[in-house]
Amino acid sequence: MSEKDRGADLSIEQAAVELGMSPTAVIHLLESGQLAAHLGPDGRRRRIRIADVEKHRTERFDLRQKRVQEQRARRWADPDVAQEQHDLDNLPA
């Protein structure tokens, strides 16, 4: 969906869909200052700039990738960690 189709900013619900999370989680991001918002034209509802949503999504993805790489490095560095993970992966259902 292009920016023109969505307008210059998103509602909390639209931002939640774009970020793949619940509206409650988006509200938490707003209240904790991790995501910026402004009041919409009606002066009552918060709106979030599309650029801010995209930036936050990119930062989350980059952080997730970094953590996966760190976990892989720990597994290679410590064979006991790798064995423990292997044991957890092979538990009966």
Task: Report the end-to-end length measured between terminal Cα atoms.
Answer: 40 Å
Strand order of the largest sheet: 1-3-2
What is the name of the CATH class?
A: Mainly Alpha
Q: Output the helix-strand order.
A: HEHHEEHH
Structural class: mainly alpha
Percent range of helical residues: 55-70%
- What's the domain count? 1
Question: Approximately how much beta-strand content do the residues carry?
Answer: 5-15%
CATH fold-level name: Multidrug-efflux Transporter Regulator, Chain: A, Domain 2
**Cα radius of gyration in angstroms:** 19 Å
SSE order and pairing:
Blueprint: H1 3-6, E1 9-10, H2 12-19, H3 23-31, E2 38-39, E3 46-49, H4 50-77, H5 79-89
Antiparallel strand pairs: 1-3, 2-3
What does this 3D model show about the protein?
- The chain has 93 residues and is mainly α.
- The protein has one domain: Orthogonal Bundle (Multidrug-efflux Transporter Regulator, Chain: A, Domain 2), CATH 1.10.1660.10.
- Helices cover 65% and strands 9% of the residues.
- It has helices at 3-6, 12-19, 23-31, 50-77, 79-89, and strands at 9-10, 38-39, 46-49.
- Strands 1-3-2 form a three-stranded antiparallel sheet.
- Strand 2 (38-39) and strand 3 (46-49) form a beta hairpin.
- Helix 4 (50-77) crosses helix 5.
- The chain is elongated, with a radius of gyration of 19 Å.
- The termini are far apart.
- The model is unreliable at 1-5 (pLDDT under 50).
